[in-house]
Structure formats: C-alpha cells, structure tokens
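As a warm-up, study this chain.
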Amino acid sequence: MRTARKQSKADIYHVVARGTGQQIIFENDADCEKFLELLKREVEAGEFELYAWCLMSNHVHMLVHATLETMALRMRRLLSRYAAYFNTRTGRVGHLFQERFLSEPVDDEKYLLTLVRYIHQNPMEAGIARVDQYRWSSYQEYLQGHGIGDVSFPLAVFGGVKEFERMHETLLGEASCLDVGEGRPVRALPDAEALVLAQSLLGGVGLDSLKTLPVRERNGHLGVLKRAGFSVRQIARLTGIGRGSIQRA
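Now compare it with the structure written out below.
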C-alpha cells in the first residue's frame, strides 16, 4: 500500500524521478533538450512554477511551486510524455521511470536554499563537472535571471546573485563539519540539511518510508546513515523510527 504524499504548507516540493533499475533516461543532449521542452510546456500551462532543476543520466531533480494535486498531475504527465518519446526513439518497451516519483515538502526558507544548492551540486558530487560548468541545470538561470524556471523568489531568499554564488562554493554539509563516511562522531547537521544529505546517501529512498520496509532492508539503510555520522536521535527524528530499533539495527 502506497504512503500518501505529504502536503507542503507552502506548496513547494522537491521532486525526484529515477530510471527504473538505474536505467539511463538521458542518453544524449537531444534527450535532455526534449525533457526540458516538455517541462517548459508544464510551466507555461500555469499554476506550476519551477524554482530549480538538474538532469543527471539516470535521474532528475526539480524544485517546484504548485498545489499537491497540480504537482502530482503535471509530473505524471511530464514523465509519461517523456517516457513515450524515449521508448519510441530507442525502441524500448516497458516502464522508463520507477513506479512512483518522490516528492518532499519544503516548508521553510533555510531548507529551500539547502535544496537549491543540493540540486545544483549533484554533478559535482558525482564527479562530472563543476557546478558552473554543467549545462543541464538551472544554475545559469540564477546568474542570467531568466530561463525555464522563475528564480526570482529563491534568489531573493538567497539575498542576491553574489550570495547565491558564495553559498554554492561551499559543499553541502561542510559548514557543519559532517565527515560523510568517516564513521566517527560528528556534530549533527541541522535537520533541514540532514534531510537532504540523508536522501542523497540513500539514493532518493524516502525517509518516511523506511519504517514500512522489510526489517533487513530498513536496517541496511539505517546503517548507512549511522556510518555517515548521523546520531541515533537525529535518525529517529528524520525517520520516525524508535531509537531502540535504530540502536539494534
């Protein structure tokens, strides 16, 4: 049984869509351009604002402003249209994307800024390119002031272009001294930043869905977070799983 999507009070959502079984969904520039063409249609249809985006080879990140119902409808339409294009072009059959795209509500400004930076830093974290050199993200839209998305609100929250650039020069979590993967005690990140980092470490698995997974699978994910330096208390807050269960895992 599917978990109901969480609703954002601010109508802002971090959306992640992944290829099924790590399937490559963008094989070339033409694929990326087609996806952005379809995405632009949804933006131009109204009631769907795009704050940030990044296309990676097997997944896509978007930060959107829309009601929950509109976001879900537009995303289903966007992904189904792109899947039809991709399968026709490649002669592929079957589902292109994982059965359900992920959506996480964004209800405070600090979390919004963290997400914008996280989305733009995906190529750098993957060792592909520097943030300012990667073509398939909204980073340049923030510098130029125009593009597919409407960056005026996030840019105002950043405090202008200079502050936007300065924040992007710092890796997510650096300021909070989280040594990911070192397996030693560290000072905890604020929950907003920890949530983004945890989602990245778990490959986009929703933290609120961990408690519904089989015990062995759930414990494996909890182990990843603990080895990355998250405290038991913070894991409990982020996942809703009891501290005793986390300690046993």
